[in-house]
Each structure stands twice: as structure tokens, then as C-alpha cells.
């Protein structure tokens, strides 16, 4: 890694090396007769009063985990029968025709709270992490973007085991806004009434496929992955897929029909140096790739785009994998143009550009990977 780089979390068309690889498959380890309950309701898998967590107990929980309820891990506890399962429809194999729609208006930009329901394609990826006493807890470390009823795209470094280390990708919260509350509510300044979204939609992770040429030359390129849920979601006002453009010119002139400022969204570090439980969004200027590449000593290529560079305005650690979005000047549909990849250690400083994976360069690969 080049000095001073922060790995946040962290095109290829028609080339054989761009073919989808075999995905990492999750789940399928619950034993027959599993009674899947919160760990707090399974005393046999918790230390007795006065005792500490042991490596053997932690290993047993890892082996018997069967999901999460909000941030609480669920385990297969004792006997009983698991709920009967039915085989649902096969996962989508193409991108939806209707996409990029949001009901939200009155957006506020500049590193502020995103409007409730304003980013219905936004997904929080939850990971199980070891706690200070060896127990497991759920932590939201990366963002992702909904592109079908059963798939999201995110950064490769958010899913590849070599990058996430002790973290274990477990679940996706679709339509998430405040990771500390469920359901999410806010008081409307106009009406002073309490407005609430439906309960957050939670899905377990079934498989993850990162680009086969990800980081092949140590330059953090091809930082993109497709993640599949265990079952599809239902689209509604607070859950919608985003559009993936066929083409996109990052050097947007001011006279273009597209807004010259891109929208970055995530739960990453704020100016207070801590992650925000409430989804944040900020408008960032797109930057000439040659200027940006020079600041990174020439490691970038045409499959990446840059944004930011203004003091106090940037994506930071924890925003990894989240979307960089372009819209029309007068609103209209939202298009996913970038995935947060990496930036400088001192994010949000003057001339410190954020680097994003140029999603339109990988549209064909994404569609191909949906069938994996």
C-alpha cells in the first residue's frame, strides 16, 4: 500500500479474465432439528455465572450460529424443529427495467443526515465480530447498493476474506437509515408529526463474488463484488433498486443535463471521528482523473473515478462499498456511478480525493454474475 492511503473498510468488456468466478457461499451449516433462537435465550451456550467466555464456547457459537435478530446473534439451541422452509423463485438474472426512483424531496447536502427514505437502494452490511470477552456481536462495516430483488453491489474489499480478516459477513439491512433504531422515525419540521418507515428488511448472505482481477497488481483496481441474499426482497417506497448506467463521462460540463455534483452516501466516520448511526449524504464535485491520478502517483486507471478534494467534504472509513450517485439537475432517476474504494488517511482535507470504482465499466460483469 502506498504511504498515506486509507483502504476504505476498506473495464473490462469481452475479456476472458472478466468472467465471473465461483462465489464464496455462506450458510447451510445449521444441523437438522435446529431451533434458531437469540443467544441470550440459549443458556447452554453461554458461560455460567462467574465464568468467562472460553475459546471452546466461542467456537461452538460460531459453528451453531444461524442468523441475527437486529444485532443479536442467533444460534441453534438444543432440540426442537426449525421452521419449515419452502423453495422460492430463482434469483434474478438481469437488472430491473424500473429503477432509480425515490419519493423523497427536500434533500439537505453537505455531510448531513440523509432524508428518511431518500436512498431506498442503500444497504448496510453486517459482520459478526469477536467482542472483548470472546462473544460475537454484529457490526455494520460496509455499505452496498441494491440492484435487483436479491443482489447488491459493493466493494470487493468488503467481502474478500483476505481483506476482512476476523470479520465474517452475515447479513444485509435493506432500506436502513438509523442502525440504532427499528423502525426508523423522525419528526417532520414542516408538520411536526412523527414519520416512521416500515421495519428494516433483513436478509442473510447466501453468496458473494468479487471481481476475478481485483487488486491483481497491488493498485486496488477492480474493487467490486456482487452479493446475493438468501431470499428476495419486495420493492416498495423504502426499498428500491438503483439504475446502473451504460455509459458515464466523469468530466461532466456545467451545461450537462446531469448534476455536476455527485451524491455520496454512507455511515462512515464524520468530522467527529466516529461512525454515524444515521445515514449521511454529501454532494461532492467530480475530479479530472488525470489530476487525481497524479496525486496518487499514477496508480489509477480508466476503471476508476475521483470525487471530493474540498475541505471537510469526503467519504471516510466505514463508507466502503457505498454508492456514489448521479442525478439530473432537476431530479429524476438516480444512477449508480461509483463504489467507495479508497482515499487518503486524512480524508476530508483540501486536495484529498476519494477514489471510486466506475460502476458503468462493470455493467456486463455484474449482469453475468447475477446468475452465479
Task: Describe the protein in words.
This protein has 372 residues and is mainly beta. The chain folds into 2 domains: 270 residues, Thrombin, subunit H, CATH 2.40.10; 46 residues, no CATH class. It is built from 4 helices and 20 strands. A 6-stranded antiparallel beta barrel has the order 15-16-17-20-19-18. A hairpin with a 4-residue loop joins β8 and β9.
Q: What oligomeric state is this?
A: single chain
Helix/strand-derived category reads mainly beta
Which bin fits the share of residues in helices? under 10%
Number of strands: 20
What would you give as the CATH superfamily of the largest domain?
Trypsin-like serine proteases
Give the number of domains: 2
Strand content: 25-35%
Gross morphology: globular
Radius of gyration: 21 Å
Query: What is the top-level CATH class of the largest domain?
Result: Mainly Beta
Low-confidence stretches: 1-20, 79-86, 105-110
Subcellular location: Secreted
EC number: 3.4.21.-
Family: Belongs to the peptidase S1 family. CLIP subfamily.
Protein name: CLIP domain-containing serine protease
